[in-house]
Amino acid sequence: MTTHVLADTTALTGRSLRHITRSPDTIITTAVTPVAIMLLFVFVFAGAIDTGTGTGTSTGAYATYLLPGILLITIASGVAYTSVRLFNDLQGGIVERFQSMPIARPSVLWSHVLTSLVANVSALVIVVGVALLMGFRSGANVLEWLAVAGILILFTLALTWLAVIAGLSASSVDGAGAFAYPLIFLPFVSSAFVPTESMPGPVRAFADNQPVTSIVNAIRDLLAGHPAGSDIWVALAWCAGILIVSYLAATAIYRRKFA
């Protein structure tokens, strides 16, 4: 049974990836908005922003401070395409056609999830490359880079399963993609751009207790080669919690839809 699921998932993932390779603008578009935000903040606002570490006077230092939040925005932008691709498959009757074939049911959703993971990792590489050109520098060793990669992959999987829920539940293609807008906005009310200490009381309370802040802080410390402290465990707990809940909800909706 496991071999059957793996083989079907591999085949369907290959199908989805071929669609992306024929239209690489999807990955480029995913990276364009985060890169534009990074360019705006680093070259326009960096001198006026006080991060509490003296980075306001250096565009390279602020690019280093800013990058973790930009990476999360990249992922939030990318998962919207997963929701749209799944919605289009549903509307086109492709998923129903798969149901009539001897294909393992979980493979239909997992193929979209794995495609999202590949596409988002590609977009993240582009964003990091641009950040390096803008002055981003890291003091992290190999293990710390692997830890950053692990957090980003876990975060991508968590948001992708949220995208699956949106793709299964949406009534229009615009609705399928629109769910990502709040996710893209969330880093702006976190420690991604400025320390939360500079925010008004109620805003700071929200920023300190939402998932993006702990994830950004953990990635920032790891990239700097500093001990991540409790932030990394809070970040992993948020990512794992969102992943488990969204996975269970998505699979339940899928089963109910094609019972």
From TrEMBL:
Q: Write the protein's name.
A: Transport permease protein
Give the stretches traversing the membrane. Answer: 27-49, 61-87, 108-133, 145-168, 175-194, 232-254
Q: Where is the ABC transmembrane type-2 domain?
A: 25-257
- Family (UniProt): Belongs to the ABC-2 integral membrane protein family.
User: What is its subcellular localisation?
Assistant: Cell membrane; Membrane
Membrane topology for this entry?
A: Multi-pass membrane protein
Q: Which UniProt keywords apply?
A: Antibiotic resistance, Cell membrane, Membrane, Transmembrane, Transmembrane helix, Transport
Q: Which domain of life is it from?
A: Bacteria
Main location, first listed in the record: membrane
Question: What organism does the record attribute this protein to?
Answer: Rhodococcus gannanensis
